[in-house]
């Protein structure tokens, strides 16, 4: 079984024409401003469990979103059907929704035009050239490594290999236009350790924008198995005050919580615990957190955000002090 390579860039011209036409027609129909977001791509997934193949999925997708701003009102409509008739309905629906929405003087596009970023190295089309049998082998190698690691690994919730390549187009009525492509690879293994009636499940994973950035399948499987085995015999301790060494996944969860709390929308709605904490200490002085949208090969890297604003590096926490929130155009 061989996967037919798909060049996602072959649709670029067609989708670029569609997006440009929608923005132009929105202006002719009375919109003060409008923007279009188009995304399409291909992905595959292989699931194995207990040394057997459970599922193989290969799919392609496409979708388009249109925003129209008219008289301080916003209408938004989206569709996965990009046929002429469907786009006609989409345009009409966006205006209908803008007519019934409330007025808001803060609505509108970002008034600063983004400039072209350098190569951020977020595209690797290796998966489009890789035989599906090789992808099965990656998943199977993880599963076998976990099951062979220790006799106490008695079961498994499976091992999964995934990849995807997508294209994104953003166009607005202020003259902004941007096209970029990105890829994503991931592998995860979830073994179950058991002694008598005690069962412990744990996992390990690896994800990257480039295939070469993934950990080796065998390493992922063995790490997942070791994490499951080491939990056997674990007991809950009484409440106490002791030094703690956090697992990397647990530690990253704390950072994730902080990032949710610096959301600009929650800030202007006064719904975050950090509402009045700007320039105040919220963590130890050895903690610095950056939101880096231009990190080369970064999982969250992109040349622009969802509104076409240029991505950049922003300091959120510096030596324990909260320095900034993360805003979109509306919340800012």
Written account of the structure:
The chain is α+β, with helices and mostly antiparallel strands. The chain contains 6 helices and 10 strands. The protein has helices at 12-28, 84-100, 132-149, 217-229, 248-261, 264-268; strands at residues 33-49, 52-70, 73-79, 153-172, 177-195, 198-201, 204-208, 289-292, 313-318, 321-322. Strands 1, 2, 3, 4, 5, 6 and 7 form a 7-stranded antiparallel β-sheet that branches. It has a 3-stranded antiparallel β-sheet with strand order 8-9-10, with no helix packed on it. The chain is globular, with a radius of gyration of 24 Å. Residues 1-5 have low confidence and may be disordered.
Question: Which class best fits the helix and strand makeup?
Answer: alpha+beta
Q: Note the beta-strand portion.
A: 25-35%
Tell me roughly what share of residues is in helical segments.
25-40%
Would you tell me the overall average pLDDT? 93
H-E string? HEEEHHEEEEHHHEEE
What are the low-pLDDT stretches, counting only 5+ consecutive residues below 50? Answer: 1-5
Q: What is the straight-line distance between the termini?
A: 51 Å
Q: What is the β-strand count?
A: 10
* DSSP summary: helix tally: 6
- 3D shape: globular
Nearest-angstrom radius of gyration? 24 Å
- Major sheet attributes: 7 strands, antiparallel
Task: Write a short abstract of this structure.
This protein has helices at residues 12-28, 84-100, 132-149, 217-229, 248-261, 264-268; strands at residues 33-49, 52-70, 73-79, 153-172, 177-195, 198-201, 204-208, 289-292, 313-318, 321-322. It is α+β, with helices and mostly antiparallel strands and 332 residues long.
């Amino acid at each position: 079984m061989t996967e037919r390579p798909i060049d996602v860039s072959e649709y670029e011209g067609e989708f670029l024409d569609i997006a440009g036409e929608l923005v132009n027609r929105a202006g002719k129909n009375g919109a003060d401003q409008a923007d279009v977001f188009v995304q399409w791509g291909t992905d595959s997934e292989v699931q194995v469990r207990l040394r057997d193949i459970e599922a193989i999925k290969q799919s392609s997708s496409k979708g388009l979103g249109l925003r129209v701003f008219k008289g301080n009102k916003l209408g938004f409509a989206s569709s996965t059907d990009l046929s002429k008739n469907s786009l006609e309905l989409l345009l009409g629906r966006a205006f209908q929704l803008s007519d019934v929405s409330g007025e808001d003087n803060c609505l509108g596009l970002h008034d600063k035009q983004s400039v072209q970023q350098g190569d951020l190295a977020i595209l690797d089309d290796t998966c489009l050239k890789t035989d599906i049998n090789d992808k099965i082998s990656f998943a199977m190698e993880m599963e076998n490594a976990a099951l062979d690691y220790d006799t106490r690994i008695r079961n498994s919730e499976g091992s999964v290999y995934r990849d995807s390549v997508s294209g994104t187009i953003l166009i607005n009525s202020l003259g902004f236009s941007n096209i970029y492509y990105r890829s994503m690879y991931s592998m995860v293994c979830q073994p179950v350790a058991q002694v008598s009636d005690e069962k412990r499940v744990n996992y390990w994973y690896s994800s990257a924008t480039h295939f070469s950035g993934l950990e080796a399948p065998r390493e992922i499987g063995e790490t997942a198995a070791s994490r499951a085995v080491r939990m056997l015999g674990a007991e809950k301790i009484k409440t106490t005050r002791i030094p703690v060494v956090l697992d990397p996944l647990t530690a990253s969860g704390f950072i994730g919580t902080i990032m949710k709390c610096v959301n600009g929308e929650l800030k202007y709605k006064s719904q975050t615990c950090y509402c009045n904490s700007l320039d105040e200490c919220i963590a130890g002085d050895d903690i610095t957190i950056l939101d880096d949208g231009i990190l080369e090969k970064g999982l969250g890297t992109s040349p622009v955000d969802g509104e076409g604003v240029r991505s950049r590096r922003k300091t959120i926490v510096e030596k324990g002090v909260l320095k900034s929130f993360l805003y979109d155009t509306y919340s800012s």
